[in-house]
Amino acid sequence: QKDGPWDGNKLPRAPRTKYAIINPSEHETKRPFIDKLLCAMILSSRSIKIVTLLLALTRCNSLSQVSTKVNGGLPPPVTEAGSAKIKAPVTVSENQKALDAAPKFPRTWVPLASTNELNPDRPTPISFLDQNYVVYQGNDAQWVVTDDACPHRLAPLSEGRIETKSGERLLECAYHGWRFSNDGKCQEIPQLTEDLKESAVANPKCHVKSYTTMDHKGIIWAWLWKEDPVELTLKDPTITPEYMMDGLKTVASSYTRDLPYGWDTLTENLIDPAHVPFAHHNLQGTRDDAIAINMTSPEQITESGFHLEFEDRTMKMMRKGTASFRAPFTLVYNGDYIGNNAKFDLTTINIPTRPGWSRSIVIMGGPSPSTDEDGNSIKPKESFAGKVFKKIPVWVIHQLSNRFLDSDLAFLHYQEQEREKRGGDSSSVYFMPAPADRAINAFRQWKTKYAHVPLPLPPPIKSRSVLFDRYSQHTIHCRHCQEGLKWVRKSALRTKGALALGVLMAATKFHILGGSVVVLSIGILALLKFLEKGFLVGDYNHYENE
User: Fold this and answer.
1) Which of 54, 275, 353, 430 satisfies CB 3.0 to 4.6 Å to 279 for a cystine?
2) Lowest mean pLDDT across 81-90, 126-135, 235-244, 268-277
3) Does residue 350 contact residue 263 with C-beta atoms inside 8 Å?
4) Which of 340-344, 458-462, 502-506, 509-513 is the least confident region?
5) 196: buried, middle or exposed (CB in 10 Å: 19+, 13-18, 0-12)?
6) Is the dihedral of CA 164, 168, 171, 176 positive or negative?
């Protein structure tokens, strides 16, 4: 150790790291046993990333929240005013009890949302395994995840707002104005005097559960289980965001969609390259790209996932690649186009939200970070195409992404309904004779042994406008598309004003100019109407796609 000899009763001084504590306690918890294990693991360079995370976790007395920090270093402890009279919230929440009582699911860090899309000033509702949470940006730009129920009368906190008058970012319930600090402690009850409030906040039931939270590579991860994350991480480092996103480039952008079919249906669809020429005809290649796919079977299927190789054809080019399922959420594709210098990379994070629904976060990576001889970051050179791509509004890219996921949305929703109606056991209801089906078989074997999905399914959605409801599935929780929708509607109002002016001018000596304004305004309004619809609802008919 460069900073002096090891003291067995204290944690070593944390190295410069991208992990940092949001709200550490004023006094560290001494964990001699954990310290010794950490000391031993530090000696192994292969374990250094996991150790960095554990050092951060063991410094947090209540394991309240952890966050990624680009320039690293642990901040000084934060002491909250008046917190001495407030007892900590209940250790195990109702959501944690429900998860513990549910059928098996791997105890890992849970991805919930992308920071690229969240509105930091909006308490955004999110779900995982049929339990409800809310995410918002708290003090010092750190992200907070709590249960989405005010302890007063269980109103959803996601319908509330962020109050900043006190100098802190407090989560305020919209029903009766109760306010909560980032660690979940109730700070304000407007209906009580100070004396009565002091008595109320002394009751653990007054507070809301706040979870250990990490921002890793632009994805918000939370520890939602009642088990100790330090203990489980020591046993299995594959449960961490570091493992699930290992090798991923910096996240330049992302696209998130809540889909009306389950996480297992979503995952088996994404791990199946054979569907692309047909389901995404004219979006990624064509039906003529379809060939017999050469796919290997995984050498082993473990709780942390599996890996396989495949060769197929897309966009008239042969490609060879690998698919890695980093259980239970991440799917990573890497490969090359044969006879071409181009590469392809795709990373998706897929989350079980509630029965018959799932969330997919499609990650669009940026240039790989690099450093000089002294370890200082070097800004990577950007290609011309990359510069052009950055000029395109994000909401335009998301409109195209909506179209892509629309193309297989309907039949996946109804396929899942039919499968469950026939018993739900894919080994008996599917007939999969091709090597291209090996990935599906591998995932189903993994799921049967290690995980479950929320059931029973809700009734099938008959209305196409509800099934393809882009607003509730994407736009409402994407700040870029919210801004795009506002811009389109404001532009429509201005164009209507121009149209009215053109009509008036048409009755004067400026009738030629007025007529031109009318024609142009009508064309612009039609375009804006088309763009507005893209934020609200989609559809897709394969019989019309020749």
Assistant:
1) 275
2) 81-90
3) yes
4) 340-344
5) exposed
6) negative
Q: Are 514 and 505 in contact (CB under 8 A)?
A: yes
**What is the C-alpha end-to-end distance of the chain, expressed in Å?**
67
pLDDT in tens, 151-187: 999 999 999 999 999 999 999 999 999 999 999 999 9
Which pLDDT value is given to residue 12? 34
Please give the pLDDT value at position 64.
40
The model's pLDDT over 43-85, given as tens digits with 9 standing for 90+, comes to: 344 444 555 555 455 444 334 444 433 333 322 332 333 323 3
Q: Identify the H or E element spanning 448.
A: helix 438-450
Decide: helix, strand or coil at residue 143.
Answer: strand
Structure-block tokens of residue 111: 């991805």
- Give the max Cα distance, the chain: 92
Tokens of 478: 């994407």
DSSP calls for 497-527: HHHHHHHHHHTSTTHHHHHHHHHHHHHHHHH
Indicate the burial class of 62 (C-beta count within 10 angstroms; 0-12, 13-18, 19 or more).
middle
Cα(298)–Cα(204) distance, integer angstroms: 49
- Please give the C-alpha separations between residue 126 and each of 63, 105, 113, 359, in angstroms, as whole numbers: 21, 18, 8, 10
Distance CA 182, CA 169 (A): 8
HSE-CB at 6 with a 13 A cutoff on CA atoms is: 10
Q: Which residues, in sequence order, are CB contacts of 127 under 8 Å at separation 6+? A: 133, 353, 354, 357, 359
The rounded distance, in Å, linking the Cα atoms of 292 and 105 is 35
Rounded Cα distance, 244 and 325, in Å: 9
Q: Which run of H or of E encompasses 486?
A: helix 479-506
Query: Pick from 349, 367, 322: which is nearest to 255 by CA?
Result: 349
CA atoms within 13 A on the CB side of 138: 28
The amino acid present at 245, given as its one-letter code, is M
What is the distance between the alpha carbons of residues 538 and 467, in angstroms, rounded to a whole number? 9
Cβ–Cβ < 8 Å for 14, 56: yes
Span 383-389, mean pLDDT?
A: 66
User: Can you tell me the distance from the alpha carbon of 264 to that of 274, in angstroms, rounded to the nearest whole number?
Assistant: 17
For residue 492, give the amino acid letter.
A
Question: Is the model's pLDDT at 483 over the cut of 90?
Answer: yes
